[in-house]
Amino acid sequence: MEILVLGSGTSHGVPVIGCHCPVCLSSNPKNRRFRASILVRNANQAILIDTPPELRLQAITFGVHRVDAVLFTHTHADHLFGLDDLRRFNDILLQDIPVYGDAAIQADIRRAYDYIFRQTQSGGGKPCITLHDVLPEFTLCGLHIQSFYVLHGQLPVLAYRFRHADPGASPASFAYVTDVSYIPPESMEQLRNLDLLFLDAVQLHPHPTHVGLNQALEVIEELQPRRAYLTHLSHYFDHDAVNAQLPSHVQLAYDGLTIAL
Question: pTM score, two decimals?
Answer without folding.
Answer: 0.96
